[in-house]
Amino acid sequence: MVYMLLGTGFEETEAIAPLDLLRRAGIDVLTVGINGKTVFGGHRIGIETDISLSEVDLTQMEMVVIPGGLGGVASIRASQQAMDILRFAGENGKLVAAICAGPTVLADLGITDGKKVTCYPGCENSMGNASVQENLPCVQDGNVITGTSAGCAIPFGLALIAALKGQTAADTIAEQIVIR
User: Fold this and answer.
1) DSSP string, 112-167
2) Of 100, 123, 138, 152, which one is the catalytic site residue?
3) Is 71 helix (H, G, I), strand (E, B) or coil?
4) Contact, 1 vs 56, CB < 8 A?
5) Over the stretch 142-179, which tens digit does the pLDDT of each residue have?
6) Is 100 a catalytic residue?
7) How are the residues of the chain apportioned to helix, strand and coil, as percentages rounded to the nearest 5?
8) How many angstroms separate the CA atoms of 10 and 8, rounded?
9) Residue 158: predicted pLDDT
10) Is it the case that residue 35 has pLDDT exceeding 90?
C-alpha cells in the first residue's frame, strides 16, 4: 500500500499528478488526511481523503509520499503521528518519497542523510547531510525518491511507479499520457 500524506496547504499538483499516475498503473494508494477528512491545498482546492492518520496500517506500507507546499509540510511537521509514520518507513527500509519542500521533512528525520536528493530551489540549506542534486526533476537513492517542484510532478510520479512496478510499467503510463 502507498500512503500519501496530505496536510492543510499541500501543493495540489504535487499530490494529484502522482496520485493519478500511480492509480493508472494499478497501484493501491490511499490519501491520508492529517488535518481532517477534507484537506485544502495551498490554492484552496479541497480533497476528500481516503483515510485518517489513525487508519494507516504500517504492516501494509510499501511507500509513503509527501507532496510539498509550505503549509502541507508544516502540517506534517506539526503532527507527531505523521512524523512517526515517516520515521517508521525510514527505519524499516520502506520507500519514502517527497517533492518540493517535502524532502526537508525527511531531512529533519535523518532519512536523507548521506543520500542524493533534490528539492525545491531555496530549500537546499534545510537538507541536512544529504547530497543535493540541482537541476534534476527527480532523484532516487536507495529507498528515497525526491522531486523538485510542481513542474516536476509527472517525472516524480513516473519514478514512483518505476520504484514499485519497474521501468516498463512507468514507460507504459508515460506512453498512455503522451508525455513528450
Assistant:
1) TTT-EE---TT-GGGSTT-EE-TT-SEEEETTEEEE--GGGHHHHHHHHHHHHH-H
2) 100
3) helix
4) no
5) 999 999 999 999 999 999 999 999 999 999 999 999 98
6) yes
7) 40, 20, 35
8) 6
9) 98
10) no
